[in-house]
Amino acid sequence: xxxxxxxxxxxxxxxxxxxxxxxxxxxxxxxxxxxxxxxxxxxxxxxxxxxxxxxxxxxxxxxxxxxxxxxxxxxxxxxxxxxxxxxxxxxxxxxxxxxxxxxxxxxxxxxxxxxxxxxxxxxxxxxxxxxxxxxxxxxxxxxxxxxxxxxxxxxxxxxxxxxxxxxxxxxxxxx
Length: 175
Description:
Elements lengths: L1 H45 L4 H7 L8 H13 L4 H12 L4 H13 L4 H59 L1
């Protein structure tokens, strides 16, 4: 009875940690996907699209979960909602990493002027952010590979390489 109770407790703790980890992953995933979103909007704006048309076409090049968020905004735009309301909802859904893009789109819609310089600067900053994120991921890679190395590769090396040599040496010592 106590063993089943311990299994239940360990299972509940594992489920809680898994849920907490998944909750923390969503903002990180959105921040990681944001440079692609910015580049898609910049490309569409430089090709002559309006900010609304850019947001409607952008989900095509995005991956989940950002695709669903931008697709919801584009559906709101297609239903006739104002761009400022839809972009403001982007600010709430994505969070602080999207503030610069949202502000640029709102100023382009409100003022009606070209935001080419702002979008170009924003695109450069997003590329720099993507590069920094990749550098951080590369630095974390050896730490992530330590567990498979220690738990899988080294034991197999011992079983396939060292144990047969020791067994052969022991057999020759006995003769």
